């Protein structure tokens, strides 16, 4: 009989009554408990408790009975207040759950009655809170029922713009919102932190007006002379249809990247005196009115169903529910900046946001301030590049004969490594090929780099100055890779097993060629004299990218730490933490990918090529009108990144006698007896070789890229009859679908 009773008790426990999700969180916080403490007491993970409190999942036996017991005890201590119960009026509370109107916290005094004001709620703080200085006559906000679309029980109207001094109403609700339609047809704006706002706008022009006047969206400027970030609205397919936009672009619209000028929504905007930027109404549209003084009226739209979020960088973010997408993009916006387009565009815009082109001058005699150049910035006007820095088709090259191919003595060719060699007999006796990858390699290359801020100056037979950024025509073919100076000591190396540090292909130079300053400086560092024939140098220079590097580094390290990969981890701890880190929080893993893409894309965007039909070689293209179109800065970053990598390769080779068998951009592959990087990296007592490879999460340090067997490597090279197939390209997965073509 006791066994029967136990089964009955278990059945009752499986349906133990629980308060609504927002009340669960209120009770925990009222008692000063953290989610970790509750999780530890119940023997579950912290994420499980968070899911119970957000309503994503419900507890199961045996934890459900214990959880209900905890909440009942807390409800006796902290009964629900009148306001709190009103916020949950659409959720049925089981009768057996004890909780009656009383002060919100034990021992506190109920506040005096006050006029009702509009309220807002968040997933973090589910109790409605009055909006400060809200108009008394405003109607109370309606509570929207939880649905499969909204996933949130408490959507509220946006606060009016009246806020206390020092509070900017354009930014109080975060940098962005995802706009969607719930099952009742109500338009909702999902903000960062779980806040949901009701949207009264019935047309796109009125949506823009509402965003600027009531939504409280935006982000503070990143630099003193800069400007606040414009609010970003992300429109779901349902929101697009509500506001007269197609859920997807036609093939023709996708190729042009925009809606046709005659589209009805564009006409609506024009009638309301709203304008679009030159790129028109595309996946990332900017809607604005000309600024009056310091007042900006601009809203940016992101439309994921139009492929605004590139899956290479944002993975499946476009398919996330609105609240989760808002949180993901909000995390990126908070740590990097509000997205301004693709990750590449955002990377470039971040440079400008940190170094605005102009600033306010000191007051003149009449007390008036004027706009002046901001020192350390690239200014507001574009500058011409040097002819050797110009990509093919640039107007500076219009006089060249048709089909002329420029060689190294005519063209600066600073690119990332793409090099491989056959394995030696000794390497063939090893069991494994182990790939290591440099974290945020191009960000590390930008750190501390002096780049040109203004235009170039042409000089003949200059004395080389490693501190002067520019492009140098110099012959480096005399540099002997088998004899190199490392620090203050000369070292003997096997030059046949090393790529040249001066060319991306790793081939030794055969005569004069154009190089960026870091490449020539490394030849001097190796112990060799250089005699440039001519140069294009930039006397106006500075460390323009330092702040850019710092912000992206901090964003990357903070996000990786949330994923369990910490900067102070030992090599063994780091490798263990990196194993499967993406599965711990797939959304944060997407943020990591977006941050890394922001680095690479931003550097690449410095030399954006001509795009679109109608362009002909020798004609200018729109990107040339940007002050941030700077191929010389891109070349300097790539040059320094390649040199940084080579410096570690040489140090490792001199100390261990081991040489890479393949290099692709920021990945190097070594033959080893074991499958782990620790099987060939010379760590001693947990300390790496000074100046060599070092495992860790910080930019410039390395992680494990992948391991395959030597038999695999030799097999794929034989399969494709390619003895120098770049194995670094395939080391991560081992999948080789076609012969290496360098793409």
Describe the structure in your own words.
- The protein has 743 residues and is an alpha+beta fold.
- Among the domains are: 1-78, lambda repressor-like DNA-binding domains (434 Repressor (Amino-terminal Domain), Orthogonal Bundle); 176-339, no CATH class.
- The protein is built from 22 helices and 25 strands.
- The strands form 7 sheets. Strands 3-6-5-4-7-10-9-8 form an 8-stranded mixed sheet. A 5-stranded antiparallel sheet has the order 13-23-24-14-25. A 4-stranded antiparallel sheet has the order 16-21-17-20.
- Strand 5 (187-191) and strand 6 (196-198) form a beta hairpin.
- The chain starts with a helix and ends in a 24-residue tail after the last helix.
**Poorly predicted ranges (pLDDT <50, ≥5 residues)?**
82-154, 159-167
What's the tally of helices?
22
Read across the widest sheet, the strand sequence of neighbours is 3-6-5-4-7-10-9-8
- What characterizes the major β-sheet? 8 strands, mixed
Helix content: 25-40%
Annotation, overall tally of beta strands: 25
Q: Could you tell me the mean pLDDT? A: 86
| Beta-strand percentage range | 5-15%
Principal-axis shape equals: globular
- Indicate the structural class: alpha+beta
Q: CA-to-CA gap between the ends?
A: 73 Å
Radius of gyration equals 30 Å
Protein name: Putative telomere-associated protein
Pfam family, one: HTH_3
Region (Disordered): 96-175, 356-382
Biased composition (Low complexity): 98-109, 141-152
């Amino acid at each position: 009989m006791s066994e029967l009773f136990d089964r009955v008790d278990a059945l009752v426990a499986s349906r133990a009554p629980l308060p609504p999700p927002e009340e669960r969180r209120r009770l925990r916080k009222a008692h000063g408990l953290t989610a970790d403490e509750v999780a530890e007491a119940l023997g579950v993970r912290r994420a499980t408790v968070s899911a119970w409190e957000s309503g994503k999942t419900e507890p199961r036996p045996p934890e459900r009975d214990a959880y209900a017991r905890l909440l009942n005890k807390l409800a006796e201590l902290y009964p629900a207040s009148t306001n709190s119960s009103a916020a949950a009026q659409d959720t049925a509370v089981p009768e057996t759950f004890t909780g009656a109107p009383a002060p919100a916290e034990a021992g506190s005094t109920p506040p005096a009655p006050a006029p009702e004001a509009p309220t807002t709620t968040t997933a973090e703080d589910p109790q409605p809170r009055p909006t400060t200085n809200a108009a008394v006559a405003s109607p109370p906000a309606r509570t929207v029922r939880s649905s499969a679309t909204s996933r949130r029980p408490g959507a509220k109207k946006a606060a009016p713009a009246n806020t206390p001094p020092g509070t900017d109403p354009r930014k109080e609700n975060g940098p962005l919102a995802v706009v969607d339609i719930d099952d009742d047809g109500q338009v909702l704006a999902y903000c960062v932190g779980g806040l949901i706002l009701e949207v009264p706008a019935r047309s796109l022009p009125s949506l823009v007006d509402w965003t600027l006047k009531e939504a409280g969206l935006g982000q503070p400027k990143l630099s003193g002379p800069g400007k606040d970030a414009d609010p970003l609205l992300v429109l779901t397919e349902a929101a697009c249809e509500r506001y007269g936009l197609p859920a997807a672009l036609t093939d023709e619209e996708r190729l042009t990247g925009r809606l046709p000028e005659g589209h009805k929504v564009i006409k609506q905007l024009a009638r309301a005196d709203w304008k679009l930027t030159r790129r028109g109404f595309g996946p990332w549209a900017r809607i604005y009115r000309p600024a009056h003084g310091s007042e900006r009226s601009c809203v940016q739209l992101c439309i994921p169903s139009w492929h605004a979020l590139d899956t290479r960088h944002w993975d499946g973010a476009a398919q996330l529910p609105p609240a989760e997408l808002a949180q993901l993009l909000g995390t990126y916006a908070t740590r990097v900046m509000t997205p301004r387009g693709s990750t590449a565009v955002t990377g470039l815009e971040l440079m400008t946001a940190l170094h605005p082109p102009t600033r306010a001058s000191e007051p003149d005699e009449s007390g008036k301030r004027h706009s002046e150049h901001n020192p350390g910035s690239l200014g507001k006007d574009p500058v011409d590049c040097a002819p050797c820095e110009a990509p093919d088709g640039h107007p500076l090259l219009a006089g060249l004969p048709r089909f002329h191919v420029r060689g190294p003595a005519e063209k600066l060719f600073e690119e990332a490594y793409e090099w491989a060699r056959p394995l030696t007999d000794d390497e063939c006796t090893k069991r494994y090929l182990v790939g290591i990858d440099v974290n945020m390699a191009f960000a590390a290359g930008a750190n501390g780099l002096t780049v040109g801020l203004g235009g170039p100056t042409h000089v003949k037979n200059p004395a080389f100055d490693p501190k002067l950024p520019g492009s140098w025509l110099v012959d480096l073919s005399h540099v002997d890779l088998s004899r190199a100076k490392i620090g203050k000591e000369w070292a003997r190396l096997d030059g046949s097993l090393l790529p040249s540090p001066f060319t991306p292909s790793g081939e030794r130079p055969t005569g004069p060629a154009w190089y960026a300053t870091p490449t020539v400086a490394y030849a001097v560092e190796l112990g060799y004299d250089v005699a440039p024939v001519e140069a294009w140098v930039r006397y106006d220079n500075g460390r323009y990218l330092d702040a850019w590097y710092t912000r992206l580094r901090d964003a990357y390290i903070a996000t990786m730490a949330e994923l369990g990969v910490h900067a102070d981890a030992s090599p063994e701890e780091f490798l263990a933490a990196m194993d499967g880190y993406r599965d711990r929080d797939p959304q944060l893993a997407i943020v990591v990918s977006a941050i890394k893409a922001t680095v690479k894309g931003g550097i690449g965007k410095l030399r954006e090529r001509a795009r679109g039909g109608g362009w002909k070689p020798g004609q200018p293209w729109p990107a040339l009108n940007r002050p941030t179109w700077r191929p010389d800065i891109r070349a300097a970053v790539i040059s320094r990144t390649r040199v940084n990598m080579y410096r570690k390769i040489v140090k490792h080779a001199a100390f261990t006698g081991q040489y890479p068998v393949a290099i692709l951009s920021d990945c190097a592959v070594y033959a080893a007896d074991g499958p782990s990087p620790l099987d060939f990296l010379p760590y001693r007592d947990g300390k790496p070789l000074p100046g060599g490879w070092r495992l860790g999460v910080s930019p410039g340090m390395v992680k494990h890229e992948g391991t395959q067997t030597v038999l695999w490597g030799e097999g794929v090279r034989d399969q494709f009859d390619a003895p120098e197939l770049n194995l670094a390209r395939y080391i991560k997965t081992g999948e080789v679908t076609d012969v290496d073509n360098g793409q």
